[in-house]
């Protein structure tokens, strides 16, 4: 498998030239982009190429996708991105009821149509808020997926768990829509206190050995992306995480 790395994890450990060199030496072959690396796509692509890395997936804000899709497309074309991913909805923009979440799903569906016509895949990336029960007992994630039946899902397993859900039933139900996975771990009690409660993959509480097997068997995931939202040592996180998953 080609193990990828979400570059957001390294945003506090610049310059990017050093980060990409490190990732290439550690055995990564892919990275996932985010807004912080799109300022000069041509120059960034040159650095990727120099270090034997490709960027098949990239995160783009809902604003960029809806208001400047041509700009997103140009960035993606330069960097080699094939799967466009909408990663987040700011707290102040989140609906409070089922109808609002269905409407948001319909917005994502329209972006998905644009992406498909342009030759790209499109997916939504979850955090924990999609798994917080609404007043009527329903879940935002259900409304998003049902209102946008033709888009994919980049499943961030650790955020599913932190949202209070069990990832296994979601994989069972929606596996063929899971086109990418964020491989992230949650720290054991008393650990990771200066890393927002996250940990290196395989050194926390999530059963990644079992989950990788399930995801390989029951999902359509092509991209498995290491991420840690706030690591205190980027080289350690990148090195230990890829060593873990390569042992599965």
Describe how the helices and strands are arranged.
Blueprint: E1 3-5, H1 16-26, E2 30-33, H2 41-50, E3 54-59, H3 62-67, H4 69-79, E4 83-86, H5 98-117, E5 121-125, H6 140-147, E6 152-156, H7 157-162, H8 167-174, E7 178-183, E8 185-186, E9 198-199, H9 208-218, E10 223-226, H10 234-246
Parallel strand pairs: 1-10, 2-3, 3-4, 4-5, 5-6, 6-7, 7-10
Antiparallel strand pairs: 8-9
Describe the model:
The chain has 248 residues and is an alpha/beta fold. Helices cover 42% and strands 17% of the residues. It has helices at 16-26, 41-50, 62-67, 69-79, 98-117, 140-147, 157-162, 167-174, 208-218, 234-246; strands at residues 3-5, 30-33, 54-59, 83-86, 121-125, 152-156, 178-183, 185-186, 198-199, 223-226. The strands form two sheets. The protein has an eight-stranded parallel sheet with strand order 1-10-7-6-5-4-3-2. Helix 2 links the parallel strand 2 and strand 3. The longest helix has 20 residues, at 98-117. It is globular, with a radius of gyration of 17 Å. The chain starts with a strand and ends with a helix.
């Amino acid at each position: 498998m080609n193990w990828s790395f979400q570059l957001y994890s390294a945003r506090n450990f610049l310059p990017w030239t050093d980060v990409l060199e490190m990732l290439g030496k550690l055995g990564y072959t892919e990275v996932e982009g985010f807004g912080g690396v799109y300022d000069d796509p041509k120059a960034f692509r040159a650095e990727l190429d120099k270090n034997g890395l490709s960027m098949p997936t990239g995160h783009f804000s809902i604003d960029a996708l809806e208001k400047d899709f041509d700009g997103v497309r140009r960035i993606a074309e330069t960097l080699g991105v094939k799967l466009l991913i909408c990663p987040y909805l700011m707290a102040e923009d989140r609906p409070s009821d089922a109808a609002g979440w269905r409407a948001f799903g319909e917005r994502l569906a329209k972006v998905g149509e644009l992406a498909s016509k342009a030759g790209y895949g499109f997916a939504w990336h979850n955090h924990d808020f999609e798994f917080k029960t609404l007043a009527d007992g329903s879940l935002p994630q259900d409304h998003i997926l049902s209102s946008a039946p033709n888009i994919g899902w980049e499943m961030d397993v650790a955020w599913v768990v932190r949202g209070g859900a069990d990832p296994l039933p979601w994989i069972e139900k929606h596996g063929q829509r899971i086109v990418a996975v964020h491989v992230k771990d949650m720290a054991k009690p008393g650990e990771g206190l200066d890393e927002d409660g996250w940990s290196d993959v395989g050194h926390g509480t999530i059963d990644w050995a079992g989950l990788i097997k399930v995801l390989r068997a029951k999902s359509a995931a092509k991209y498995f992306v290491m991420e840690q939202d706030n690591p205190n040592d980027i080289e350690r996180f990148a090195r230990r995480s890829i060593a873990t998953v390569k042992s599965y």
